[in-house]
Amino acid sequence: MPLLQLHDVTVQFPEKGGFLKRTIPPRSVVDQVSFQIFQGEVYGLVGESGCGKSTTARAIMGLNSLANGQILFQGDDLYQMSRASRKLRMKDIQMIFQDPYSSLNPRKNVWNIIAEPLRNFENLSKEEELAKVQELVERVGLNAESIYQYPHQFSGGQRQRIGIARALALRPQLLIADEPVSALDVSVQAQVLNFMKDIQEEFELTVLFISHDLGIVRHMCDRIGIMYKGRLVEEGTVEDIYERPSHLYTKRLVAAMPELNPEKRSEKVKQRRQINEQYELAADQFFDSSGRIIELRKISDTHRAALK
Amino acid sequence: MELTNEAMRQAKMGNQSFHSAIWREIRHDRMALVSLIVLVCIVGIAYISPFFLSIDRVTRIDLSSIYLAPSAVHWLGTDDGGRDVFGQLLLGARNSFTIGVCVTLLASLYGLTIGLIAGFYGGIVDQIICRVLDFLMILPSLMIIIVFVVMVPNYSVFNFILIMSIFAWFGKARLIRSRGLAERELDYIHASKTLGTPDWKIMLFEMLPNLSSLIIVNMTLTLAGNIGLETGLTFLGFGLPSGTPSLGTLIALAKNPDIVQNKWWVWLPAALLILVIMLCINYIGQAVKRASDARQRIA
Amino acid sequence: QSRVQGETEPPVFPLEVSNQDKPIEDGEMIVALVSSDPFEGTLSRPFYSGSFDAEIMNWFDEALLSTDSDFEITNDGAATYELSDDKRTITLRIKEGVYWHDGEPVLASDLLYAYELLGHPDYAGERYTFTVENIEGMDDYHAGRTKKISGIQVHDERTISVTFKTASPSIMTGFWSVPVPRHHVGDVTAGELTMEELESSEKIRITPIGFGPYIIVKIVPGESVLLERNEDYWRGRPQLQSVVLKTVNEAIVVESLKKGDVDLAKVPADQYETVKKLDNIELLGDLDLAYSYIGFKIGKWDDEKKENRMDPKSKLANKLVRQAMWHAMDNESVGTYLYHHLRFPATTLIVPGFESYHDAKNLGRPYDPEKARALLDEAGYIDKNGDGFREDPAGKPFILHFASMAGGDVAEPIAKYYIQNWADVGLKVELTDGRLHDFNAFYELVKSDDPKVDIFQGAWGTGSDPDPSGLYGRKALFNYSRYTSERNDALLEAGTSKQAFDTEKRREIYKEWQALMVEDVPLVPTLYRYELIGVNTRVVNYSIDANSENRHVWKWGVSA
Amino acid sequence: MEDILLTIHKLRTSFQIHGKFYPAVDGISLTIQKNEVLAIVGESGCGKSALALSIMGLHPSDRTLVEGIIEFQGRNLLQLPIAELNQIRGKRLAMIFQDPMTALHPLMIVGRQIEEPMNVHLTLSTKEKKHRTLQLLERVGIQNNEQVYQQYPHELSGGMRQRVLIAMALACDPVLLIADEPTTALDVTIQAQILELMKDLQRQSQAGILLITHDLGVVAEMADRVAVMYAGEIVELAPVRELFYNPKHPYTRSLLQSLPSATGQKQKLHVIEGIVPAIEHLTRNGCRFASRIPWISNELHEGEPILHEIAADHFVRCRCHEHFYLPAERMGDESNASITAT
Amino acid sequence: MLVFIVRRTLLMIPQLLLLSILIFFLAKQMPGDAVTGAFMGKPNVSAEQMEKIREQHGLNDPWIVQYGRWIGDAVRGDFGQSFVHKQPVTQLLAGRIENTIWLSVATLVVTYLIAIPLGMIAGRWTGSWADQFIVTYNYVSFATPVFVFALLMLYVFGFVLNWFPSGGSVDIRVEEGTAEYVWDKLKHLVLPVLSGSLLLTYSTVQYLRNEIIETKMKDFVKTARAKGVSENVVYHRHILRHSILPIAAFLGYEITGLIAGSVFIETIFSYPGLGRLFIDSIMTRDFTVVTALVLISGAAVIVGTMLSDIILRMVDPRIRLG
Ligand SMILES: Nc1ncnc2c1ncn2[C@@H]1O[C@H](COP(=O)(O)OP(=O)(O)OP(=O)(O)O)[C@@H](O)[C@H]1O
Ligand SMILES: Nc1ncnc2c1ncn2[C@@H]1O[C@H](COP(=O)(O)OP(=O)(O)OP(=O)(O)O)[C@@H](O)[C@H]1O
Ligand SMILES: [Mg+2]
Ligand SMILES: [Mg+2]
Ligand code: NI
């Protein structure tokens, strides 16, 4: 059984407009997205800005309400549970945020930040809590005395580690990482990525890894879903996506990745042009009559794409 | 990793809280520092004055000595009831300041509660609160305060504070709401939600501390405004009960041109005192404001 | 010279300007209406209510009958009168050559019109007074039962007679003789316009006319009025070419006088000292027909019977306490220091302005704390617990509540001072609600006999009629003390009876009444007052002396 | 050498912090030639923007100190009075900013903003200006140019806005274009388009471009020459091929190793120890990178590191590169530290 | 745009209605009514007579009935009769409102005329002596009670220097409609307006200064400079255009300040306007006038906020579509 299952998940935001601000039909930001994540794997969600990646993540976390669909965690529908049991359940799902600067409360010291989930769910004595926090802090590679420091005294990478420590405090099964490194410099990025990989292996975490950087996704993930305008357009293993992209949008994304070899510049440019042209020509192939991206079709056991 | 107690303590001390930021900012701004000292002196003297000044004596009418010019006995002369202006000034400063502080605190409490709720929940709750605030903001509050003052049957300082504070919180609520709305979109609030922290805890322990600098800045700045408003209302005759010494009572005597011209000691010290108090609060407020915004800090 | 009263010597003010120069032909006088508020501008006698409106009207309008220093009607006005032997019918004859400003003659029917307005069922003003009500047939007319007032006869164009139900000396002081130009303002009785329309009509607000010495040329509402000489004035040619009346804030009166911006202005007491020093200003002063008082609540208004009823259980029922409280009050100091001698201790309830009726020998109850203490001891109010304040005879705390009006710079020190005075003799008095009350709230409290009030401070203007029954009668709503006694009833009755047309007799009656009030002390008259007028030295022929020829507006002029 | 557009000599740009001036750009010398794309790479905070702003003269004069020589077509920009500087900027020297969201005036229609440099530098009639603007918009790949002309920035997508910014920079046919991270705020696909566009335009106009970026991928795709900056200094300067095939400076090598390699090998990424020190905490004597490669002993660094030309046009600061190895290499993986062509 | 204005206007109606109910209710709660006020201190009016007058004016009806009557009339522009002034309130206000409008508009204009240049100078040359001077002036003006300042102005310029008339709105001697009349009106306005506006500049200067300092650091300003635009143009075209927006948004609330200020100013300069009328009316319990005045002030603020909204909409394209 998959650890997390999304079934036709739809998230809508109301749009304001018109005379006397009547509510006009809401816009689906995430439109009937379904995928599954299995125990222990790292699932990547890729797409351009505004395609609905974060919204999907937030829907799983219960920060947005669903307009339609189900989210099953270990087979239980998170949105059908009572508030209390859902709260207990959410303990097993934790999130790492994109911006290490705003995801930590600047008014709290590291101790209080990391202890927050512990205080909510576990009744620890002060000593136990301190011990636990120190353990976590050391686990993420920070000094023990840093628990008295405030977020602004840390670099971006260190902050992201604090965020990870907080997420790990309750020993979750599923970790959702929403662009955890896109605000960081290359060198720091490497640090966090390495670290996340270690943690994932050590805790046998299941991770939903969201990013727009195909290089990073490739480095981190086992399976990848490509999102476009609120819909999933292709899903498959890393090899499926990078070696055998079937959807033109995926191809386009892959082609847009900067080439690190100066020699291949012109080649790459040519390739991009080609794909762009194709894309423009064949655009309507990927949409149904109402202009909606069509459903995924199975290509192989691991590979699905929104193709006719 | 073994940690010495010393290292722990230093790490603890190394953090800089908002308070120390304010203090540093004030220390580096000469005007603010002077203001703070002056204000502390004024308020300090005013508040400890009952220990060396008998209120009864200061407020006792002595018709044979009205409008005496400053002398060794009456440092700042006497007022329309032959009362010592210096003593009145101290009592007045104390009353005015107390009222200003009380009004500010009360108004902040209202504003904070409403603003936080609107800011935290957003959506429909915010919409409703906003509409109500929109309406309240357009009330001609000075006029309505006056109407209230006239209306209240059992008029006392307490009632006055209540009335003033009822009309002083709308702006605050708005301010806190809008910052709250911005704050609620920040990831640390999301984080707290995903960590299972209950809403009220998030509001009080996550959001509020981050708004605290805003609130403190707003409070220091409106404190001056509230003291000014109290004085103004007293000037118009709708402020403090007239036997209660207040800076406004003394300045209100300046309605009479003879006093303005020939009996400056009655109103001028009070006017200057209020000016100094308000200036001081303002300078401190500005320093506090800078402290709240790292980009503006001098220190 | 003005009359001097009381034990102390208040300053002495002239009643007439000293400038003896000839007035210039094209002079203009600027008169201040001293107020921080705009004047209301209802420039018609039946309808006006502001004192500034009255002041403005003085310049362009007047009563047909003139009055003397006792405010009694005389025969040297625009009309002469005759009183019938039974003193119930008065007949007016308007002199020749009295014309409205628009050239129409002043007719007897114009005076009739005034009565028709005053008695009209729709009339909502305040001048439906005793002398109007007392006219025969007025009740029926007022109730709308008839269209004509049977007691008023118009004999010819210029003769009219008015018959009263009862003979009362009030006729001599209270008789209404101001006509209303029916042709100008429009006829309410003929249905040309309604009473309300008339009241807000431009004809009395923007373009009013009268038959006085000056003609209104222009009005800036609430601010100023420009008048010009009425060449056809019946007494003669007015001295001034033009007159400007304008509101001047109290705050800047002195400056305006000093600069010569205004020639004539009432001077507020607190600025007297400053004005005194100005050498271009002469100060005239006369006693005002008003006094301040401290009242004691000793009863309640009985709404059933519409009369006052004393309450023997009220806190101040014991007259010794009231007497003591009067003795405890240091009015002398208040007048001297707070009013710069412009007010001085009052003695009786008939002001010295009524020269013939004020009992100058009755000294009231002068400041004497010792006597006050003795009286209180005698009454059994003794400080038993040693807290400095007396308890009542039963030994219970005795706390009185004092209501006083806010307004003016000195209201607060005065109230505080009296409280101190009483504290000095051991009486504990506190301000009702802990504050001074504004005008309306104060009267609301006092009028409704609110139990929160035991003592109250106020002031009365007496009007020109010395009869005090409107303020102290058994049926008088304004008798806020709610004091009644048989003797009081009898004396007041006698004061307005037919026999009181004899001034000597009336003086006796009122002397007795004044003594009664000093004995029973339903209220303490505290201060009499001067009214001060600052006049520029260039003003000539100006007088506030009721006996002087120069009291007439048309005589006033300015020299070069 | 009339092909040289810009010569920077010992440029030092210092910011005032706590009343003292600390250099953020510390003695940089560079030249840019016609028709050349010079890329500057480095981590955040190493002084790239400070350098660009210094060239444009956009630092507020009260809190910034700019010393050295910036010679543009024979004139030292630092010594020009503001009026003359204004004659140059926007005309022969133009700049593209990083964030298209904020770099456009939110209350002016796009057309006016593009016309503004023409108002200043060219004498054209209103019609000509509009014509030229529409042409420019077309050149940067905006098809519905008439419509966009009338629109406000917030009505455009990020990519469109960046195109508008480019059009604005090109308004007076500049000979040197300074682009400060022109694509950082954009999506990959759009980034590719914009880069291509810039390349095209550059080829057409033969202008020089100073391209500032922190993305080595962008460098590889665009640049002719690359300067690697660290802590206000240039640590390595080389033609693009040389840099990617034969990186020398420890910093360059570390950077390349810390990229999640595009080849898909899931080996550990290299992590550079520590952080870039803030300019007020930077130790300025000795090798500035030394603290971040602590396993290289101190003697191996130069006392006063200078740029050494180790191959034609290839400069490296400090001798330490000769002894440098990555920790991973020591542990047996002897493969070349550079990215080998696939 | 039109749709927006219509919507905004419709939104005003419930606000006004709510305001009117609130105000009416407050007025009725005050101790004493118009009749008490009008006849107190005049001994010769009997209780029955007063009761009759009360009955006549419907002062004894339940308040909801009175409200219904009042609001019905108010909609038709009839605020009833002032008991004290014996005049329709509308007529009474008509005489004063013109003066108040003169005063407020002039004060507003002068405030902006002073504040905007000051704010610009202070914002542009932050830290210069001019800036320090302006900031100090600003603090002082904020801290000075308006009545003290107005009194001083009156003394210095009205009396000591004798430059301007010390009270009133216009001299009686000048003909209405002539240029002289207007000139005289303006002369009478100088002191009240200056006293008001010199202290009202606070928020505008403060805001503009901060806003300019903020805007100065914005990227689009760098863009403008990079285009070679001269410094003056940068400030006038780019920075000011952006910074002035919030000032427009404040217009509505500025009106609140004006109303409050006019109460003081009109009292001190004996300027016959609505502010003074309010104080007088409240003293005399002339509640038809009080209610009308508060309603008018409220309406003025509502209209003001609406105006700022509309202005904002017109100048800020971001809101226009948003
Ligand atoms: N609270 C909200 N109200 C209305 N619209 C929203 C809200 N949150 C997100 N959206 C819209 O939903 C769409 C998807 O947003 P989302 O944040 O999920 O994108 P994303 O893929 O995470 O993009 P990015 O890479 O920029 O983070 C965007 O167009 C955004 O404008
Ligand atoms: N106005 C300023 N005042 C003080 N310090 C500044 C200022 N501007 C920049 N700095 C500092 O100067 C250094 C260089 O900044 P710069 O903006 O040039 O970096 P950058 O390389 O462009 O970084 P990024 O990639 O983040 O744009 C940084 O340490 C920064 O903190
Ligand atoms: Mg996102
Ligand atoms: Mg930069
Ligand atoms: Ni080195």
Automatic annotation (TrEMBL), chain A:
InterPro entries in alphabetical order: AAA+_ATPase, ABC_transp_ATP-bind, ABC_transporter-like_ATP-bd, ABC_transporter-like_CS, Oligopep_ABC_C, P-loop_NTPase
Any single GO BP term: peptide transport
Show the GO MF annotations.
ATP binding; ATP hydrolysis activity
Task: Indicate the segments forming the ABC transporter domain, all copies.
Answer: 4-254
Q: What's the short name of a Pfam family annotated to this entry?
A: oligo_HPY
* Gene3D superfamilies assigned: P-loop containing nucleotide triphosphate hydrolases
Keywords of the record: ATP-binding, Nucleotide-binding, Transport
**What family is reported?**
Belongs to the ABC transporter superfamily.
Q: What is this protein called?
A: Peptide/nickel transport system ATP-binding protein
From TrEMBL, chain B:
Domain annotation ABC transmembrane type-1: ranges? 93-285
The answer to whether keyword Nuclease applies is: no
Membrane topology per record: Multi-pass membrane protein
Membrane-spanning segments: 32-53, 97-120, 132-151, 157-175, 264-285
Question: Which UniProt keywords are listed?
Answer: Cell membrane, Membrane, Transmembrane, Transmembrane helix, Transport
In terms of InterPro entries, this protein maps to: BP-dependent_transpt_permease, MetI-like, MetI-like_sf, OppC_N
Subcellular localization(s) per the UniProt record: Cell membrane
Superkingdom of the source species = Bacteria
The alphabetized list of GO BP terms reads: transmembrane transport
Signal sequence coordinates: none
Q: Which GO terms describe its cellular component?
A: plasma membrane
Please give the Pfam families that the UniProt record associates with this protein. Answer: BPD_transp_1, OppC_N
Q: Which PANTHER family match?
A: D,D-DIPEPTIDE TRANSPORT SYSTEM PERMEASE PROTEIN DDPC-RELATED (PTHR43386:SF1), OLIGOPEPTIDE TRANSPORT SYSTEM PERMEASE PROTEIN APPC (PTHR43386)
- Family, as annotated: Belongs to the binding-protein-dependent transport system permease family.
Protein name stated in the entry: Peptide/nickel transport system permease protein
Tell me the organism: Sporosarcina newyorkensis
Q: Please spell out the taxonomic lineage of the organism that makes this protein.
A: Bacteria, Bacillati, Bacillota, Bacilli, Bacillales
Automatic annotation (TrEMBL), chain D:
- Kindly give the CDD domains that the UniProt entry links to this protein: ABC_NikE_OppD_transporters
Spell out the InterPro entries in the cross-references: AAA+_ATPase, ABC_Ni/Peptide_Import, ABC_transporter-like_ATP-bd, ABC_transporter-like_CS, Oligopep_ABC_C, P-loop_NTPase
Q: How does it sit in the membrane?
A: Peripheral membrane protein
Q: Name one Pfam family in it.
A: ABC_tran
Compartments it resides in: Cell membrane
Q: Which GO molecular function, any one, fits this protein according to its record?
A: ATP binding
GO BP of this protein: peptide transport
- Gene Ontology annotations for the cellular component aspect, listed alphabetically: plasma membrane
Cite the ABC transporter domain residue spans from the record: 6-256
What keywords were assigned to this record? ATP-binding, Cell membrane, Membrane, Nucleotide-binding, Transport
- Which SMART domains does UniProt cross-reference here? AAA
| Superkingdom, natural source | Bacteria
Check the record and name the PANTHER family matching this protein. Answer: DIPEPTIDE TRANSPORT ATP-BINDING PROTEIN DPPD (PTHR43297:SF2), OLIGOPEPTIDE TRANSPORT ATP-BINDING PROTEIN APPD (PTHR43297)
Protein family per UniProt: Belongs to the ABC transporter superfamily.
**What is the name of this protein?**
Peptide/nickel transport system ATP-binding protein
**Species:** Sporosarcina newyorkensis
From TrEMBL, chain E:
Residue ranges annotated as coiled coil are none
Tell where it localizes: Cell membrane
User: Residues of the signal sequence?
Assistant: none
Q: Which taxonomic lineage is given here?
A: Bacteria, Bacillati, Bacillota, Bacilli, Bacillales
Q: How does it sit in the membrane?
A: Multi-pass membrane protein
Annotated PANTHER family: DIPEPTIDE TRANSPORT SYSTEM PERMEASE PROTEIN DPPB-RELATED
Pfam families for the chain: BPD_transp_1, BPD_transp_1_N
Q: What name goes with this protein?
A: Peptide/nickel transport system permease protein
